[in-house]
Input
Amino acid sequence: MQQRDHDIARVQDILQHLDVSRCRQVAGWLQDHIRALEVDDAMFKLSIQQLRLSNRTLNVLQQNKIHSIGQLLKKASDWDNIRKLRGAGDKVLQEIRATVEQLQAGKIVK
Output
């Protein structure tokens, strides 16, 4: 059995032991993660400076080594990663969340 097949079998085995609530949590996370992975490569490489973020939010992202839209979406696939950004207060987090939601919905054009 190839490694991928083995990994999928392990995940399926784990999921079979979860209750409905936990399965919904996993499904929500998976949906967000898939959205982040599906962003096309050109947009993935665009600079976050093209997002028209406030200076404070832009500085926080850059200080945390997030320079491209792809890096932002990947980091935001698990919201706990965003909440842990050094220097990010409530306003910055709100701006990042709104921007990520717009990106995932395809509302921010290239």
User: Anything to note?
Assistant: The longest helix spans residues 20-38.
